[in-house]
Amino acid sequence: xxxxxxxxxMETLYGEADRARGLPSTVAWLCEEVGExxxxxxxxxxxxxxxxxxxxxxxxxxxxNQLGLSLEEAASRYVTAPPT
Length: 84
Prior knowledge:
By secondary structure, the chain is mainly alpha-helical. It has helices at about 5-20, 25-45, 45-65, 70-80.
């Protein structure tokens, strides 16, 4: 699945609820999921790590949707002018 397709899927599945929750809560959930990913990387299985990567991606997509921004566009700078 392409990243833009995933972002659209997250909007379809959760967009209304995510917007009702608001940006501060979305950022808090994203941070919580990043923490869970860090724990899975340190002590978890590959299956747990994959699960947490998906959760982080989902919450990042929610945040981008609420901001009206494209994850594809955000990622494109790594293709055209990667930071050094």
